[in-house]
Write a structure and sequence with these properties.
- With about 300 residues, this protein is mainly beta.
- The chain has two domains: about 150 residues, Jelly Rolls; about 90 residues, no CATH class.
- The protein has three helices and 19 strands.
- Strands 2, 5, 15, 16 and 18 form a five-stranded antiparallel beta sheet that branches. A five-stranded antiparallel beta sheet has the order 3-4-17-13-14, with no helix packed on it.
- A hairpin with a 2-residue loop joins strand 6 and strand 7.
- It is elongated.
- The protein starts with a strand and ends in a 16-residue tail after the last helix.
């Protein structure tokens, strides 16, 4: 086998995968969520034990994601209230809400507890809850929709009226985190510098309306692939807390670009030699070309 080398300079060899989370082109690992998929690339990227490779980088230059996930989902759809001495846990219907529709939902749920009045202040954008049955009530820390309503942890009152500490929040997830099992470079720092993830390939701002498309382009971010034994590539799309997004059956589309930096590449056959070889080899064997056995 003849080689092409450029002295001490590395040769850049690029492979591009055009992928999606459609069932026809991926292995879905969380069904209709469509936010964790695998791709078998062994027939396309066989990099293991290739001594010509110095290193490999990966980037996501392009992605299209639909903002089809719900504002109220399985991660934030509970409200736990202690009214007097009675604790009740409510489950919110998943979906997208405005101030009026969410207030109506809360009012319907809390009616089972009786005596509730819910108002919102158009100037401060804060909820106020009042109860005529008991002056003592608490929204507990077991509540998962707290940031939507406007509090953190637990809040309580002994006066029968409680105004939230923060504004209500009906904004969608602010960004989608794309993760890849081949990486260990990008991180999200949490409290006390705890690492929330080290496999981050891209962070895509959510700038679309509900059910709108987000188009992402970024040719700058490039990450080192630590393991060249490529078999299954797994892509996950999560929020900042590492929780998989539920896209409700809507597919995403993206490009993975592998830059393979080689010390040398195999010299391609001359065209006349290739023609001679094909003419000499039986038709049944023409589909396999062993470059290593050919002399130029």
């Amino acid at each position: 086998m003849e080689k092409i080398e450029y002295g001490n300079e590395l040769i850049k060899d690029t492979k591009v995968l055009h992928l999606s989370t459609q069932t026809t082109s991926s292995i879905l690992l969380n069904d209709s969520y469509k936010s964790k998929v695998s791709y078998d690339v062994r027939g396309y990227l066989n990099l293991e034990n290739d001594d010509s490779i110095e290193y490999v980088t990966l980037q996501m230059p392009y992605a299209v994601i639909c903002n089809s996930n719900y504002i109220v989902n399985e991660y934030n759809n509970t409200l736990e209230v202690i009214l007097g001495v009675v604790t009740t846990r409510y489950t919110l219907t998943q979906g997208n809400y405005t101030l009026s529709t969410f207030t109506a939902l809360l009012q319907t749920l809390l009616t089972t507890g009786a005596g509730w009045t819910i108002t919102s202040n158009a100037t401060t954008n804060k909820y106020t809850f009042a109860n005529s049955v008991s002056t003592n009530f608490t929204f507990t820390s077991n509540t998962t929709c707290d940031y939507i309503i406007g509090f953190t942890g637990s809040v309580s009152t002994t006066t029968g009226t409680l105004t939230m500490l923060r504004t209500y929040n009906f904004l969608p997830i602010p960004r989608f985190i794309i993760r890849c099992n081949l990486l260990s470079d990008g991180i999200i720092l949490g409290v006390n510098s705890n690492v929330a993830g080290s496999d981050i390939l891209a962070s895509i701002p959510n700038v679309a309306r509900n059910n709108g498309l987000i188009t992402y382009e970024n040719n700058a971010s490039e990450f080192l692939v630590k393991n060249l034994a490529l078999g299954l590539i797994t892509i996950s799309i999560t929020d900042d807390n590492g929780r998989l997004i539920n896209f409700n059956g809507v597919s995403s589309y993206f490009v993975l670009k592998f830059n393979i930096f080689r010390r040398y590449i195999k010299k391609p056959m001359r065209f006349d030699n290739l023609v001679d070889y094909i003419n000499k080899v039986p038709i049944s064997q023409n589909n396999v070309v062993q470059e290593e056995t050919l002399a130029e």
